[in-house]
Amino acid sequence: MINKTVSSVEEALKGLSSGNTLMLGGFGLCGIPENAIARLVQLGVTNLTCISNNAGVDDFGLGLLLQKKQIKKMISSYVGENDEFERQMLSGELEVDLIPQGTLAERCRAAQAGIPAFYTPAGYGTEVAEGKEIREFDGKMYVLEHAFMADFSLVKAWKGDAAGNLIFKGTARNFNPIMCGAAKITVAEVEELLPLGTLDPNQIHVPGIFVQRIFQGTNYEKRIEQRTVRERRLEILMN
To answer: Domains, the chain, ranges and CATH?
Structure first.
């Protein structure tokens, strides 16, 4: 079996260059490829088109790339936690394509499955459908959406092995699995990289056939995008 392990994030991102289109997994700040993003900042690549459900926050995740003006276009669904994103979008510095979340996910999955396009009712009758083919099926109108075309998919998993088999943990099992194999090259960073034969085949979420490079990440912060807690009430017990 092919060993897809690379020794570092530098080797994992070999060939990535300015002007590339990237898919980046994660939901909010959960399950984002922290090591890969940090390396992109160091590389200084520019004019990137980034496909990601979120755009990080001002000082973390994709927000780091936005600070450096390395992203030309964001294709996203939920971007409400990033002030710099808002500033660049309103000033016209950043191209933005906002997509219904289910459509975003399906366009990733379609690319993974080799399906060029599909029809969905989401967005019909709104700005989302402008300029797109519309067809009626069984009395209901549908919008034609095309699969994404990306150069690199950068995903983050909990565990993986040398063959690229991946297991995700909790909410990180969102956009990460459907972005595997949805680009020319899929790079997986994992918290724990194990030898072949270690993972239970029944627990694998993404088989290694969808992954070209895998490496073990380090120093994960795993930030919480927005911490919400119940206000503590002080109760005085009277005897």
So the answer is: 9-116+147-216 (3.40.1080.10)
Overall average pLDDT of the 106-112 stretch: 98
Supply the mean pLDDT for the chain.
Answer: 93
Taking CA atoms, 117 is separated from 69, 109, 126, 146, 219, in Å, by 31, 11, 19, 4, 39
Task: With a cut of 70, say whether residue 235 has pLDDT above it.
Answer: no
The predicted model scores a pTM of 0.91
Strand-pair category, 166-167 with 183-194? unpaired
Q: How confident is the model at residue 8 (pLDDT cuts 50, 70, 90)?
A: very high
Calpha distance 193→166 (Å, rounded): 9
Mean pLDDT of 156-164: 97
Provide the residue type at 97 as one letter. D
Mean pLDDT value across residues 210-219? 96
Measured CA to CA, the distance from residue 109 to residue 103 in angstroms comes to 10
168 pLDDT above the threshold of 60: yes
* Beta carbons within 8 Å of 139's beta carbon, 6+ residues apart: none
Q: How far is CA 88 from the centre of its chain?
A: 20
- Count other Cβ atoms within 10 Å, centred on residue 53: 22
71 φ/ψ angles, rounded to the nearest 5 degrees: -100, 125
